[in-house]
Amino acid sequence: MRKVTLSFTLSVGIALVGCATLTPLTPTRGTSPSLVSPAYEPGDLVVNLKIRGSRTVQDAPDVVAIYSAEDVKKLEIIPMLKVGEGDYRPLGKTGGTTSEGSADQLKQVIETPDGIPRIVLKNLAPNSTYRIRVRAFDAQDRLISKDAQSVSADVTLTNLPVLPRADVPLHLEDKTFETTARAYVGFEGAPGEAAQVRLTLLKKVGNDPEVPVGQPLVLDASTFPRAIDLGGLGPNATYALKAEALDAQGNVLKEGRVEWGVGNDRTLAAKNLNLAMELRAGTYVGPTGTFSTATLGNPRALVQADDGTLYLSVGGHPMSSVPQLLKIRPDGSMVPLITDLEPSQMIVGMALGGDGFLYMRMSNESEVMRVDPNTGTRTTVATLPSAAFYGGMTRDDQGSLYVTSGKTIYRITPGGLAGVETWADASAVPELEDSSLGAIARDAAGNLYVTAHKNGSLVGRIFKVSPDGLSVTLLAGRGASRTIDGDALTVATFQAPEGIVVTPDGSTVYVSDQHSIRRIKDGMVTTLLGGGRIPNAAAYIDGSGADVRFHNPKGLAWTSDGKLLVADFDNGAIRIVDRF
């Protein structure tokens, strides 16, 4: 009984099954295929696989693609012997025929073929007729060839000195046209009150209505920004990814979408989808809240501790209440910390130290004081070389304080707070002629941002100081007594910038200015909330955009969860700004 084996013109790294042996067969280039190469033997049958290259065809209404040779990751080679008219049986490993799928069936499996191999059947019986069936599988082990068509024609072995060859037209299945897209979804700024983001994939074909594809995906807002991959997109359709920001109750706060038109293109560009949550001003503490205007006074400078405790200086204007330092606990209860100040001693700068104490400076006074946050006891810890009407204060991560006075920024180091040094001298900056520095803020890189007022007029500017204090440059404001938005250096103007904060990365600066909150970003100044001079009767309105009404807002401060607090001086309120 003849024992039939298979061999392949492949590298020795191919694993073989059963009794098949590996004999590299390399006919000399240019030799006629009808001649027996010295490497071949009588009883050999060469099997050639032929696959047409990948193509995309229009087969209305769907575009389909043909699997290509690159998709083939496994081959099964199945020789069959003709035993009767139209009757072909699988060959057995030990000779003769066997049943399909039996353990004795001669079947060669080639994993991850490097190209399409030449297969050689050896020890075949002469004067017999054979057919070769080949099956192809992809990386997911899916059958991707057509069994009925991926079979060679009859090949009969004779005793003639020719090398028989079986050409197998390996027909691969059609696959439905599918492509993928990627969207980078995030928030422009902070998520604000958004608790979740609902993502919905929509599809539109021709003039048909837009319909959802599958079920929406709901993710926690804190996980954004993130990439969203969309798979299974079909041809000749428009797909849209809709993102909705939801509050804790499931209400839609903001939505946005991006679209892809899919023709026959398998490569779709990635797109960005940023939800620009609307800025809205509400009341944190004020006349409609726990405290009346008379109780709260006229808030000027403020700072909030990580535990939510708010420290607030009020009064100190000829037309306002007597200066005080108030402490408002997270539960809403208020404790007066300092109540013995003179009318001229308005607190213009405050900062929380890393040591748990509060530091402050008063208008026209050079002393920097440390305040016990529980008792209100104050102690002078440093004396500045000069005193000025305006001023501000901030600190760095090492506990050093930065205090503005006149045209100078002083640094007070901890432990001299051990000592006072001139950190930045802006007296030679041309744009600061006849001006004084005011509020101050610091980003994570150590840059300082400072407001400035032109003495005796409603003209303001914003300056940036390098981390080493050696460079003071104009950030925004061309020096005119108006509030105009536009290019920060050539168009925009400020009238009375009183408060300033900056995002940790330094990309965005917020300023309170003449009944409004304004933003400096990417070289542009934009009024976000409020605006214009308004009568007292209409000077207090919560809301968004230009509908908001402030009345002479002054100090700004971040809350521990990233919201913005505004000391609304003449309204006697603390307003809170967030994205909704």
Q: What's the tally of helices? A: 1
User: Tell me about the biggest sheet?
Assistant: 5 strands, antiparallel
Query: What overall geometry do the principal axes of the alpha carbons give?
Result: elongated
Q: What's the overall average pLDDT, rounded?
A: 81
Strand content: over 45%
Q: What class, by secondary structure content? A: mainly beta
Q: Rg, please?
A: 40 Å
Total number of beta strands: 46
- Kindly state the percentage of residues in helix: under 10%
Explain what the structure shows.
The chain is mostly beta strands and 580 residues long. 1% of the residues lie in helices and 46% in strands. It is built from 1 helix and 46 strands. The strands form 11 sheets. Strands 5, 6, 7, 9 and 10 form a 5-stranded antiparallel beta sheet that branches. Strands 14, 15, 16, 18 and 19 form a 5-stranded antiparallel beta sheet that branches. Strands 43-21-46-45-44 form a 5-stranded antiparallel beta sheet, with no helix packed on it. Strand 45 (564-568) and strand 46 form a beta hairpin. The model is unreliable at 1-38, 53-63 and 288-294 (pLDDT under 50).
